[in-house]
Amino acid sequence: MKKVRDAEASKARVFDAAAEEFALHGFVGAKVDRIAARARVNKAMIYYHFKNKAALYRAVVGDMFAATAARLRELRASNLTPAQQIDEFIAIVAREGQARKYFPRMWLRELADDGRHMGERNFADLTAIVSILAAILADGQKAGVFRPMPPFVVQVGIVGPLFLFLATGPLRSTAALKARIPISNISTDVLIDYVRAMTKGALSAQRP
Amino acid sequence: MKKVRDAEASKARVFDAAAEEFALHGFVGAKVDRIAARARVNKAMIYYHFKNKAALYRAVVGDMFAATAARLRELRASNLTPAQQIDEFIAIVAREGQARKYFPRMWLRELADDGRHMGERNFADLTAIVSILAAILADGQKAGVFRPMPPFVVQVGIVGPLFLFLATGPLRSTAALKARIPISNISTDVLIDYVRAMTKGALSAQRP
DNA sequence: GTCTATAAATAGATAGAC
DNA sequence: GTCTATCTATTTATAGAC
């Protein structure tokens, strides 16, 4: 019993340490030795809890995707208007991404890697997320409030700004210093509002 | 003389091969052996032409940044209106990024790495780019056509969608198949228009 | 300028004792 | 469940011949 609780605790520590390590160094750059050190666990324990480095990685990605897909399915089951659903889509992606500090970095890397390290399960969740956005856009077009636009364009228009921002805190601070730009503390709410304004401005059916 | 031309040619092949390799695998994942094979050059030649892997990387990043910064300085010297300068800023970043297929992926990775592999020169160019955007925004605010917005927010709102799109061609094709979304061939012009509409929609001073 | 050979370090994974 | 020791493979970089 005691052992079981310890096992769960050490497995959770491995998960957290791995998430941080993958975010900072990418799949290839992440070192199992460092994950073990970070988790205060013997390296062999990582292979006891998870099959290997790849499986550990997929578990971390899966946590974000499963949570996001679940929240989006709830959204889709609501009866909000298409415009409101876009607002909520943006807020959900932003909040789930912010709740997992490591994830935006991991995702930028995984995109650059063409999804090379994702498993079937990860891919299914990603597909679900894109399909939900496509459905919202289709509803909005049918209602005449959105102009036609390929879902992937809208997707990168939402995820791009959100994740680039969430992933680049330290770099922005450094750049702000060097460029002598005031380092205003930008809240996630400001960011969400901006992405909402961008997206609806660009999707709006009636434009000059 | 013949040798010199050969040297220039092989150095150029190393540059191209390295750019491709860094884009596909990141700084850590890039293998010098693969760069040599790709460039059809002996591995030792890489160290003959460039100091080491890091210097080679900085040269590739520098090519994009120097070109972009130069074009933006020209833009800044023009007498276009702030709104027109934003449109041109977006087009320049998109076109320079598209002219270097490898770069958007490299940049997503470098952002996730907090700029860890950049040199002083790279950083100076990056700073110049951000400063130019900040100046355009300040002009627009002064003229009353843009609402106040931190430059970094606008920056991620432009670079995020552009580079996420440019970096993810193959992945989008795969996802489109799995999600049964029509794989429309989206042109860079459509993308540029969308990012322009997004940015100006979100910056517009008079909004509901 | 070009190539071979190799030094030196590092990393993923596992066997096997406790 | 936990730890030590180690095997095997890779990888950056250079020395030195041509």
Q: Which protein chains are joined by the largest interface, and how many residues does each one contribute? A: A-B, 62 and 61 residues
CATH class label of the largest domain in chain A: Mainly Alpha
Question: What are the secondary-structure elements of chain A, in order, as H or E?
Answer: HHHHHHHHHH
| Beta-strand segment tally of chain A | 0
**CATH overall fold name of the largest domain in chain A:** Tetracycline Repressor, domain 2
What does the radius of gyration of chain A come to? 19 Å
The best one-word shape of chain A is globular
Structural descriptors:
homodimer, 208 residues, mainly alpha, Arc Repressor Mutant, subunit A, Tetracycline Repressor, domain 2, DNA-binding
Question: What does this protein structure show overall?
Answer:
The structure is a homodimer of 208-residue chains. Chain A is mainly alpha-helical. The first copy, chain A, has 2 domains: 1-50, Homeodomain-like (Arc Repressor Mutant, subunit A), CATH 1.10.10.60; 57-203, Tetracycline Repressor, domain 2 (Orthogonal Bundle). Helices cover 78% and strands 0% of the residues of chain A. Chain A is built from 10 helices and no strands. The first copy, chain A, has helices at residues 2-29, 32-39, 43-49, 53-77, 82-99, 103-112, 120-142, 151-167, 169-179, 188-203. In chain A, α7 packs across α8 (151-167) and α8 (151-167) packs antiparallel against α10. Chain A is globular. The mean pLDDT of chain A is 95. The interface between A and B is large, with 62 and 61 residues. The first copy, chain A, binds a DNA duplex (18 and 18 nucleotides) through α1 and α3.
